[in-house]
Structure formats: structure tokens, C-alpha cells
Design goal:
2 domains; alpha+beta; Aspartate Aminotransferase, domain 1; two-stranded antiparallel sheet
Length: 163
């Protein structure tokens, strides 16, 4: 038997999904038919579907999820020309159509970071280059306060590179 499994509501495109319940049996989702007892059609609820970007942030474990959601809002607030897209399997931010930065989690340190596309042109003691040629990253510890002073300085320098 199939039962209705709603997606998480978030205000995007509409989708209805059915989930198979192997304990009850059945091979296909039910059709909208009249119920014998009431004579009414079965009710099918539609819930908005998450975009890949929203889904990425929703699947992050806490406290990294809260940290990354704040960084997302912070980046988008820096300029009206900054747009967010799902590219290369991660949230990427563009400034006037040019790659600007991205958010990801460091495999070794297990911390969220901001990847700065033109990071090689910025010198700041908290930026890590590791094995990257042109990009640098800023690790953000989700268990501590977000370093707003550092972010403000870095984003001022980053935006200046694109002027």
C-alpha cells in the first residue's frame, strides 16, 4: 500500500509524493477515486518542493547548518548584484555574472568555509590557500561566534576586486 509522504514545505514548486509501505503491500500509488463510504474524492495535498540549494542547507547537520544559513544570508546581503546558483554541486555566488565565492564544508576540519574565487589576490592571515592556485578559503568554526569583523574586511576587499 502506498501512503502520502509530504515534502518539507518551503514556498517553492509544488510536488506530491507517495511512499511505499512494504508492510502493507501494494505496487502502485492510489488513484483519486470516490470513497465508497462518503462518495467524496480522496484528498491529495500538494507541498512546495525544495530547490537543490534549499535542500543542501536543510541536510547540513547542526551547528554547521545554522552557520551556513547565516553565511548564505550574509553573502546575499552584501550587494544587490550578488546572486546564488547551484553550480558544481555546491552553492555558488556570482557578482554581476562572475564567479565570486562559494560555501562548503572542509573534509579535514569538518567546518564550513567560504571559498573565495579571487583569494590569491587577497592577503589576510586567516585565509588558507592549501593546494589551491587561485582560491583561498576562510574556515568558520560553527561552535563559536561568526567573525563579523573579519567577514566585513574580506568582503570589502573582495567586492573591490570586481569593481
Amino acid at each position: 500500500m502506498y501512503t502520502f509522504a509530504p515534502s518539507i514545505v518551503r514556498g517553492r514548486a509544488v510536488v506530491a509524493r507517495w511512499a511505499h509501505n512494504p508492510k502493507v503491500g501494494g505496487s502502485s500509488p492510489p488513484r483519486a477515486t470516490k470513497k465508497p463510504s462518503t462518495g467524496m474524492l480522496g484528498v491529495l495535498y500538494f507541498y512546495p518542493m525544495l530547490t537543490p540549494l534549499d535542500n543542501f542547507f536543510a541536510q547540513q547537520p547542526e551547528p554547521a547548518k545554522s552557520c551556513m544559513e547565516y553565511l548564505r544570508a550574509y553573502i546575499l546581503k552584501q550587494s544587490p548584484y550578488i546572486t546564488e546558483e547551484w553550480k558544481y554541486g555546491l552553492p555558488f555566488y556570482y557578482y554581476k555574472g562572475k564567479m565570486f565565492c562559494y560555501l562548503w564544508t572542509h573534509k579535514k576540519y569538518k567546518q564550513p568555509y567560504i571559498g573565495i574565487v579571487k583569494g590569491a589576490q587577497i592577503s589576510h592571515p586567516e585565509l588558507l590557500q592549501e593546494k589551491r592556485k587561485t582560491m583561498k578559503i576562510l574556515l568558520v568554526d560553527p561552535t563559536k561566534d561568526i567573525p563579523l569583523k573579519t567577514l566585513n574586511v574580506l568582503f570589502k576587499e573582495m567586492l573591490a576586486l570586481y569593481q
